[in-house]
Design the sequence.
């Protein structure tokens, strides 16, 4: 089965590719010849995920999925949440976002946070969503060079390293995106058996 992944984020593509089993072929927007920046205008991950997959489905008529992810920090009442990419402004700078987060958490003992991913799958125009959550905490300063976004300041529950100190397989052992993708794969496997 061919599925277009509605994202321009190369990091997300690299994380997902190894998680999809052999008979699910992931096609990137670039490979599908689509050069567009899909907007994320809504107030929830669920609506943004559907907006992105619907935009690509309307454009191509092909089965596709998208995902939207947010970092939800307990002491900040769930912020930056759906605004994670643009937390420090429209430049979408990873460094500026982390700096703002650390400033807003200065002096705060409660460092609990979670990543939440929502995948929106469109098959024959019908949507199914899958959620993945990774609980953890925000540390005081950046550690590690790998990954993207808030990875250098996030330690998942069950480990002592930040996501940025892990390789792809290690991050996927814990990550929100891997957990949502596991549900997507299970759904696709049973879908294939029934169609
Ligand atoms: P998006 O809107 O789903 O593309 O993601 C929003 C923002 O959340 C991104 O710009 C990243 O800063 C951050 N983000 C998403 N996924 C991850 C992750 O796996 N690790 C760290 N940061 C992430």
Sequence:
């Amino acid at each position: 089965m061919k599925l277009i992944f509605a994202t321009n984020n190369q990091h997300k593509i690299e994380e997902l590719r190894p998680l999809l089993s052999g008979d699910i072929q992931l096609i990137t927007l670039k490979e599908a010849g689509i050069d567009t920046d899909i907007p994320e205008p809504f107030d929830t991950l669920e609506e943004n995920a559907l907006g992105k997959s619907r935009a690509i489905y309307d454009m191509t008529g092909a089965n596709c999925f998208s995902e939207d992810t947010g970092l939800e920090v307990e002491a900040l009442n769930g912020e930056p949440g759906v605004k994670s990419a643009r937390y420090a402004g429209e430049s979408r700078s990873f460094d500026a976002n982390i700096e703002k987060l650390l400033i807003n958490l200065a002096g705060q003992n409660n460092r609990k946070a979670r990543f939440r991913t929502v995948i929106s799958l469109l098959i024959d125009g019908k949507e199914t969503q899958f959620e993945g959550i990774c609980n953890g905490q925000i540390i005081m300063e950046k550690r590690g060079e790998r990954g993207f976004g808030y990875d250098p300041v996030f330690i998942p529950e069950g480990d002592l390293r930040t996501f940025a100190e892990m390789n792809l397989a290690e991050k996927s052992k814990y990550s929100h995106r891997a957990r949502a993708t596991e549900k997507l794969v299970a759904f696709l496997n049973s879908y294939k058996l029934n169609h």
Remarks:
- The mean pLDDT is 95.
- Residues 9, 40, 68-69, 71, 84-85, 94, 97, 115, 147-151, 163, 175, 177 surround inosinic acid (CB under 6 Å).
- The two ends are 12 Å apart (CA to CA).
- The first helix runs from residue 10 to 16.
